[in-house]
Amino acid sequence: MAVAYVLYPLFICIQLAYGVYLLKRALVTRVHALIALFAISLLMVVDVIVTDLEIGPKILRDLVMMDYTIFYVLFTKYAFFRKQKAGYRPVLAIISALRLVHFIELQLFDQTMPPTNPVDTPAKLAQYAFHVALISCMHAIALGYLARASFMAHRAAEKQHLEPWIVKRNLLIGVASLLYATQPILWLFVPTDGNAYVGSWAGFATGVSIMILVLGHATISLFSWVMPARLKAWLNRGTPQGKEIVPEGLPEKVPELIQKALSSRETMLIVDFLGNILAHRIDKSPGAAKGLLLLAVQEWQDTSGKAAINFLDFREIVSTTLQRRLAGVNVPGPAQVVDELLADITRNQAMILMMII
């Protein structure tokens, strides 16, 4: 218990730290998928408090236990597969059904993992095995779904000319998800005598192993989302820094409004990324394509009155002011170019997400 009172608060602090950070970023960037991650961090904290530390009423435990698996599916859909088909509905339906059955069996049998009452009869053993199978399936499906999406996004990002820290972010999230998905393997070694982790050295070792695995997941997630500058520099080590392409076609004196908005490094990363794609589609230099994008941003800001832009605004900018700019410089089929660029944004939404968080 002494070890638990050290490691559990550490886990709670890590979860709340990156959960609150992501909620703030969700409000700033309007990437609403991040709210699901905040919900996950909050639900995990409550789950630990009411389940592992046994603080709070039983009904609260039964209501919140494993709810975070549903939010993992929601986050994966809206962060990686928005406006795409990726098996989201059946996965969400399966997780929701399992969680409903899980709640019912908690009411009927009051089983938990680790078991706080002895599993000493065939009937109790069957109930406990059913309970562990349910929560194992929820973990494997929800975290496996996110891990698969993250690894797919990582492979796609490796083909793009992006800074390594952006590419590796997806890899780290996938590793953290896969690590947490393996937690049920350790559950197989939990003693069933009712003493949980404190009745024997085997139970103690299993409990510590589970806490270390959970802390590993939380720590990797923390550094994946709240990535410090030193970690970005370390991930970029050995990467030659090419000469920055100055956007062409911009006026010598850029209005103060756009200067303020484009001082954001995240915004410029998106302009750089989309500009390279646009250049290929309109057969112009990357500098010229980025210049058109920046001028489209400026025009959109002048008409909308917004001093800052976010991910959703980029889609609107592409659909409106950029299309007019493309027509103004006699780009053939500007509407088709815009449709293709919007499709590129949808396909690469995970990479763009990693740039702006």
Describe the structure.
Helix content is 74%, strand content 0%. 34% of the residues are buried. The radius of gyration is 24 Å and the shape is elongated. Helix 2 packs antiparallel against helix 3 (58-64), helix 7 runs antiparallel to helix 9 (201-225) and helix 14 runs antiparallel to helix 15 (334-347). With 357 residues, it is mostly helical. The longest helix is centred in the middle third of the chain and has 37 residues, at 122-158. Mean pLDDT is 82; it is low at 242-246 and 250-263. The chain is built from 16 helices and no strands.
* Poorly predicted runs of 5 or more residues: 242-246, 250-263
Q: Which oligomeric state applies?
A: single chain
Helix proportion: over 70%
Strand content: under 5%
Largest sheet: none
Helix-strand string:
HHHHHHHHHHHHHHHH
The overall pLDDT, averaged over residues, is 82
Helix-and-strand structural type: mainly alpha
What is the tally of helical segments?
Answer: 16
Number of DSSP E strands: 0
Gap between N and C termini: 37 Å
Principal-axes shape call? elongated
Radius of gyration: 24 Å
